[in-house]
Amino acid sequence: MPHAILIIDDSATARELIRDTVEETGLFATYYEAANGSEGIDILCRHAVDVVLCDLEMPGMGGLALLAQMSAVEALREIPVILLTGNGNQTEKIRCLGQGASDYVTKPFHPGELMARIRVQLKIKTLQDSLRESNRQLEKLSTTDSLTGLANRRHFMERLQTAFLQSQRTGMTLALIMLDLDHFKAVNDSRGHLGGDQVLREVAVVLGRQMRPYDLAARIGGEEFALILPEIDR
Asked: How far apart are CA 167 and CA 27, in angstroms?
């Protein structure tokens, strides 16, 4: 997947130097630039970015303020930020790392060092993204019926308990519909299990089309389905 980098510095000359250095490696397909932290936040909220290079001291919103803003937005918290500054003081480095910077590079930077640090942060970000996607897939598998794509029995029971408790607490109406396909064994006997599976999938499609965003359709057994319909008056 193509990667994107955001370069934030109030100096156009500095941004150009950084971009020229990074472009030589071919690591990134997309480059964004900002003159201060506020512009950087705006770009981060509108575009997918894998690594941020940010000057520490800038007019308006500087590097530390940017880190604070990013930490307040869940979607931005995991994006690595490498701070760049002419201040090589060890105490300053520790302060920046303690406030959320992923790394710290002193200006004037050595191109090889800068790229090595960028590669490390990009690798970490890529691994984290892969892990999150794997976890999402595992969560989906644990709650979804593999044949029909509807909720499975486990997820149905969890949602039913939640909906029932909410109905008791708020007084909202709640409907539970149980469905069983008549003569389904005859379908399996005449069409085979593949034919029976196709019938189940088609039933799932029909049910899914009727559901509101907050309803739940589930397959809870072989040919048994169930619907949870909160806030319904008929």
From this structure: 53
Strand extents, DSSP E, 61-164: 81-85, 103-106
- pLDDT, residue 92, reads 84
Do 132 and 169 lie in a common domain? no
Catalytic residue positions, numbered = 223
pLDDT, tens digit, for every residue of 149-202? Answer: 999 999 999 999 999 999 999 888 999 999 999 989 898 889 898 999 999 999
Q: Which two tokens stand for residue 58?
A: 């800038």
Q: Are 34 and 66 in contact (CB under 8 A)?
A: no
Which of 125, 141, 157 lies at the terminal end of a domain, its last residue?
141
Sheet containing strand 30-34, strands side by side? 30-34, 4-8, 51-55, 81-85, 103-106
Specify whether the CB–CB gap between 219 and 148 falls below 8 A.
yes
Q: pTM score, two decimals?
A: 0.67
Q: At what angle do helices 37-46 and 63-71 cross, to 10 degrees?
A: 30
Of 106, 141, 176, the domain-final residue: 141
- The predicted-structure confidence for 58-113, as pLDDT tens digits, reads as follows 998 999 999 999 999 988 999 999 999 888 788 888 888 998 999 999 988 999 99
Neighbours of 204 (CB within 10 A): 19
- Report the alpha-carbon distance of residue 148 to residue 102 in Å, rounded: 43
**Domain ranges, residue 36:** 4-141
